Amino acid sequence: MRKLGCRLRCPVCGSTEIYEIAGGYMGNVYRCKHCGYVGAFVVEANEKLAREIERQYLESKDDGDEDSEAKDDNQPRR
């Protein structure tokens, strides 16, 4: 039973844009439309927790972009 004000959210980005892609005997598997996450684990979160998940996701995404740019600079040119 869900708590009042809580919704199922993606554990990676905090989005509510998740949908079930498989289920049944072994349990449910979800996919996030926002970040592409696929898995059985979803978070039941209120708005405050969802904002924190989203903030951390955006920070890690920004950090990842800088790393990928640095890697591109180290690649030999053809």
**Strand order of the main beta sheet, please?**
2-3-4
> Which shape, going by the Cα principal axes?
flat
Any idea how many domains? 1
Cα distance spanning the termini: 58 Å
* Main pleated sheet: 3 strands, antiparallel
Q: Let me know the number of strands.
A: 5
Order of helices and strands: EEEEEH
Task: Indicate the mean pLDDT.
Answer: 81
Instruction: Name the beta content range.
Output: 15-25%
Helix content: 25-40%
Supply database-style keywords.
alpha+beta, two-stranded antiparallel sheet, 5 strands, 35% helix
Your description of this structure?
This protein is an alpha+beta fold and 78 residues long. It has one domain. It is built from 1 helix and 5 strands. The strands form 2 sheets. It has a 3-stranded antiparallel β-sheet with strand order 2-3-4, with no helix packed on it. A hairpin with a 6-residue loop joins strand 2 and strand 3. The longest helix is centred in the last third of the chain and has 27 residues, at 47-73. 10% of the residues are buried.
Task: Summarize the model shown.
The protein is an alpha+beta fold. The protein contains one helix and five strands; from the N terminus they run βββββα.
